[in-house]
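Late entry, evening session. Most of the bench is empty. Finally got around to the prediction I had been postponing all week. Sequence below, unchanged from the version circulated by S.P.
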Amino acid sequence: MTIRSTGGRVAAFAWLAFAALNIADLVFGFTGDPEYSLTTFTIAALLLLGCGIAYTIGLRPAIVGDDEAVTVRNPLRDTRAPWPAVRSIEGRDALVVRFTGPDGGDLQTRAWVHQTSPRAQAKAEARARKQNAKLGAQVKGRSPAGYAAERLNEMRDRLRPKTRSGAPDKAAAAKNPEAEAVRGTVSWSIPAIASLAVPGVAVVVCAVLAAVN
């Protein structure tokens, strides 16, 4: 199961297409004679920096659940928590995964994907209350993060150790020494950092050269 932001991906691909066309115009001169000047290189560096931002903010972030773990991929960092290490998964204005960290302590990560403002969540709950009043039923004001949390919790329960009846055995999972030894990991994304650092350094160098000249 992979959850991404559709709006973020559309905006990122739109910027990448815009940047690619403009860089091609700078290099090949589709709209005029190409001019290889400091200004041209500065514009190209700024376009590439925008591509790095589009990648880290629009394309990278995701929530991935598989048979072994849940992975929260944020703009610059990746968190992977094997299911036995997951303490809780909650979703309200953002999806939050609490898990056993590399040092054995409790850690939590907040997903970049499906973040909503408290005001938007309050509106969703208000709509749910109105529906409850009209229908006489309990309708939960569920945010996208809340729906994602429900799906991940269902996956987590399905992958827990089972009793003979087939139900998830929470007590057995809690007492399992192997489960206690499993820990999550948090790491920086080198490609994401490079996509911002390389064009960022180029922009700074161009700015320094322009100031000197």
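Two things to note before I forget:
The chain has a mean pLDDT of 84.
Residues 2-60+189-212 form one domain.
Will write this up properly tomorrow.
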